[in-house]
Structures are given as C-alpha cells and as structure tokens.
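Review form for a predicted model. The reviewer records the input and the model, then writes brief findings.
Reviewer: anonymous (R2)
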Amino acid sequence: MSKAILANKEVMNLILTSIIGNYAKGLYMPRTCEWIDGNRADMIYSPIMPPSNSLPPIIIEAQNVVDELFMHRLQKYCNHVYKTFDNIKPIALTICVKSIREVFTKDYYDTEKGEFFKQLPCQYWAQQHLILTPSTIANHLHEPLHPMVALGYVFTEQQCSLLGLEYRDDPTVKLLYAIAKQTVDHEIRTHDATIDVFMDVCNQTKTQFERIIEAINEDGPSSTRAMDYARAGLVYMSTCLYKYRQQSSSTSATALPSPPDLPNGVIPTAGRQAVEVLQQIKSQKKNMKWM
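Model under review:
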C-alpha cells in the first residue's frame, strides 16, 4: 500500500516540494526499480530532464525498523542509483514506521528542510539522507499538518480507516486515504474477478466428475463413456493450467493468439490426437460431391 501512495503524482509533488523545492513539481516521474543483484527500492522519483545536483534522483524507503542491515541495504540502493543516473548522488528519504536503533539517533542533525526531518550522515553515497520517524513528527502534530508530517503520520499509525485517526479531518490525511482506497478497490475487483474464474473452473470440473460417476453406475466399472469423460476432463484441466501459466508469464509481445475454432461438424472425441482430426477433415474433403 505504501508504494501505491508514493507512486501517486500528487503525493510525489508534495514530497518534491518539501525536499527539493517548488520548482521540481512536474519535473519528475515515479518508478520502481530492481537491479540485477536482486536489490529493489520501494520508490524512485526520476527527473524527466537530465539529472543534476539541483534535480537529483530521489529514493524513498518505508521501513518498519531502521537498523544496521537496513542502512547497508539503503547504501547499496543509492550506489545503484548513482550509477544509473549519470553519477549524480541521490537524495534518500526514509520513513521509519516503528523504531530506529539508538546508535543512529546519536548521529541525528537538523536540516533546513523542516524541523520534522532529521538527517543522518551519508557523505559518500547520497547528497542527503532525510528521515521521518514517529518521534521526529511528534511535536508537529497540530492541524493543519504539514504534508510531510501527514505522510509520516499516516504511515506510522497504519490505521485501516480514517475513523481510527485523531487527525482524520486534515486535507493531506484525507488525500492519502483516498489514494489508498482507490488502490484497495482495484485490488478487490481483480481478486473478485479471479475468484469468479476459478469458481467456474471448479463447477465445470465438478460437473465432469458427476458425469463420470453416472456413466460408471449405468455402464459398469469398464465404462467407455466414463473413460471419455475422464479424458475430456483431463484435457480441460490441462488447458486451464496452460492458459493461466501463459497469462502469468507472457507479455503481449510474446503471447500467441488463441487458436481458431474447428469447422462445424468436426467434433474430436476425448483422447484423440490432432493428426486424427486432420485426417477426418481430409477424408471429408475427398468425399465432397459438387452439384
């Protein structure tokens, strides 16, 4: 959910205004980034113009607990960004959701970008490393909330509903929850559609098993009809598996179109090979009588 909020353009511009200045609005685009070594940043704001010290890349991480492992990982991310963006050191923003180890709080120093921010040393891998924590925003929780305080507040409170928040009427808090709601609604619709598809598959499979049982009851254990139903069910499930695997692994550029339907009158029985179907079509052509 945090990534969806950070990817929103309104939120991005709020962050850019606080970190860089008003002139940066509209000059960046959000992007996720994964590198060849498997490292993946939560969010990167990439300048649409050639990067520079005045328009550097921004890397944002939402982290439950800021500890030494996280700091090493963040440094790796920044090194990757430095190489990707023409050797321009990024600005790093960490939103600490729960706690930060005391060893790092001893290194805090202030920044002109806001009293609710603290800064940590990052001399060789970032222009600045700004951090928001529950404690850094605690003295700034009065309405109207500064947009960055509101962002830190929503991330650290982690309430499912606005009703659980003391500052639920703040405009930025409302905006952030509206963005979260849109994301959740989309995910729910996708989830429901997926359930509908698999319910249909289950119903079709259930019906096929019922046909097999009925055929065995009527024709006996060696029923040819039951075997045909079983083979048809196997083909159906194989087709489903193939289709869903293709959808999850293929892009529109590599995926093949669905095969065309067979001509009317050609109905292969379960278990027959494609060559048999083609032979049937061929023989039908030979026997055609022209008027």
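Findings: The chain has a mean pLDDT of 83.
Further findings: The first strand starts at residue 28 and ends at 34.
Recommendation: see findings above.
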